[in-house]
Amino acid sequence: MRRITFIFIFVCCALALVAQDVIKVNFKGSKPTISDLAWAYLSDYVYDEDDDDCLDEVRSSVKNAWALYRKGAPLNEGEKLNVDNKNGYAIYEFRSEYESVEDLCQVEMCYWNESDGKHKLFAYNVKCFTNGNYSPGQFDGLLFYRYNNATKKMTYYEMPGFTASLRTEDGAYITYSLPRTGKDIIVTLWYDNGTKKQKILKWNGRRFNR
Fold first, then answer.
1. Of 111, 121, 148, 176, which is most buried with the most CB atoms under 10 A?
2. Shortest CA distance to 182 belongs to which of 154, 149, 208, 148?
3. Residue predicted with more confidence, 1 or 122
């Protein structure tokens, strides 16, 4: 997967890759699972080379892997997909090695039940690493959709406190880790000198407190 470090190019592609503002979620039973929300988001993406400016290689790969998972078929070499419906969390990983270089791309998806009892917040998060260190990918970043229980649709949502930029004012790269257990997001700041810092964003039932 192509690597790129120029943040302005990332931002342009990130904005272009929100396929639709509103996505219909199909499911069986009384409420959707992470499988239903994730598949709705992934299947909404269809690459049209005559219309799209950027081929979202990551989302396309996750979509293909999820389609195989739904069929009970084995994934491609280097791919892993763990779907935890009980905890409302899923993670896709693609790992490749060449000589002494190991690249890893992780895609996390999860949701939170909002305190009003009428909505869920769905998150899609991409981050890439080389030999264990953060290596910004072209499609890295975190985005949110808000699911409405009444309409059974989820709408792209600009969560307060989050921006498209993956760098802080002092130059650190930002990655997010979504919760498989608990409700809080872990933020990691990666500095050019090799150090890193972490902080926790706590979920309050509607948004995250910094």
1. 111
2. 208
3. 122
H helix count then E strand count, the chain = 3, 12
Long-range contacts of the stretch 126-133 (C-beta < 8 A, 24+)? 126/58, 127/175, 127/176, 128/1, 128/3, 128/103, 128/104, 129/103, 129/104, 129/105, 130/3, 130/101, 130/102, 130/103, 130/104, 131/100, 131/101, 131/102, 132/102, 133/190, 133/194
State the pLDDT at residue 20: 61
Identify the DSSP state of 13.
H
| Helix or strand (DSSP H, E) at 31 | none
Are 22 and 155 in contact by the 8 Å Cβ rule? The answer is yes
Express as a percent the part of the chain with pLDDT over 70: 87
Chain centroid to CA 176: how far?
A: 9
pLDDT of residue 18 exceeding 70, the answer is no
Looking at residue 151, its pLDDT comes to: 97
